[in-house]
Specification:
Largest sheet: 3 strands, antiparallel
Distance between the termini: 32 Å
Structural class: alpha+beta
Number of strands: 3
Strand content: 5-15%
Radius of gyration: 19 Å
């Protein structure tokens, strides 16, 4: 039978619930990725300069209003940015948001 790896006991030090900006920022960014459709949108936008909202809607088999809600959440949490070009909304990755997410994940 294979030997089980040594386990560490949980640190008994209580966790304080004081204001922790890093934890709050991490939670906000993670919320943006907390739905498979939003993950797919991020994957779609990575490597592109911009993508029209209509193009995103055409590639996702959901109602336009549902896709728009997902885009709104991604924008609110700072993972994407959007700009109005004429009458059309263009979305792209927010580089600082992705960079911060990677930094926070690495710090786990």
């Amino acid at each position: 039978m294979p030997k089980q790896p040594a386990t560490k006991k949980c640190d008994p030090t209580p966790i304080t619930l004081q204001h922790d900006p890093t934890a709050e920022e991490f939670a906000k960014l993670a919320w943006g990725l907390a739905h498979p459709v939003r993950v797919k949108i991020i994957r779609m936008l990575i490597g592109r300069e911009v993508c029209m909202c209509g193009d995103i809607v055409d590639r996702i088999p959901l109602a336009q209003s549902t896709v728009s809600q997902h885009l709104k959440i991604l924008k609110e949490c700072g993972l994407i940015q959007g700009e109005l070009e004429g009458q059309k909304m263009c979305y792209g990755i927010h580089p600082q948001g992705i960079k911060q997410l990677k930094k926070l994940i690495a710090g786990l």
